[in-house]
């Protein structure tokens, strides 16, 4: 079934780049979901519950807008949070917060969770999942932390780090899917597509 259309309900350039690296050129329709409002209504601060709910809210928001004009598509919503020592973080709100986080993370390990929610507008069916990856950080001097934060990169990503940027040399290893740490789990996306009757090859762009 060639030509299946994937819509990414996210402004994240890393998520789009990951999909493109796997042969998929998604359309991007950014959700209008207020993440803080969704999280505050859950009655739970469990990170797996939160990322699953936010991914669903984003996918449903975009699917609702596309469905109103009867457009056929698969809509993918994602959201990520990082947990270390019982503390859960999304994107830092300031450079000072990013500095404090990274200093607390260096030489330690935590878990990056990403919620995924996929909706097929044609069938109305959906499939969902949460991927978790353990990340081990190497040492960073205070000077290295300050220089890294000054680049602005950690202000744009959950947990204040990423594997596809300047922080990559400071990650000593991961246990699990590395693409999940960058923004979304490509193997999980493959499984969600299969749940809805699609092969990931159906989404490949022409070479």
Mean pLDDT: 92
Per DSSP, the total helix count is 7
Major β-sheet annotation: 7 strands, mixed
The residue ranges in which pLDDT falls below 50 over 5 or more consecutive positions are none
User: What's the assembly state of these chains?
Assistant: single chain
What characteristic shape results from the CA principal axes?
globular
CATH topology: Maf protein
Radius of gyration: 17 Å
- Overall helicity: 25-40%
Number of domains: 1
Ends distance: 16 Å
Structure write-up:
With 207 residues, this protein is of the alpha/beta class. The protein has one domain: Alpha-Beta Complex (Maf protein). Helix content is 34%, strand content 23%. The protein has helices at 13-21, 35-40, 47-67, 95-105, 142-150, 178-182, 186-195; strands spanning 6-8, 27-28, 74-84, 87-89, 109-120, 126-137, 171-175. Strands 1, 2, 3, 4, 5, 6 and 7 form a seven-stranded mixed β-sheet that branches. α4 runs antiparallel to α5. The longest helix has 21 residues, at 47-67. The protein is globular and about 55 Å long.
Describe this structure in a few short sentences.
The chain has 207 residues and is of the alpha/beta class. The chain has helices at 13-21, 35-40, 47-67, 95-105, 142-150, 178-182, 186-195, and strands at 6-8, 27-28, 74-84, 87-89, 109-120, 126-137, 171-175.
What structural keywords apply?
single chain, 207 residues, alpha/beta, Maf protein, seven-stranded mixed β-sheet, 23% strand, globular
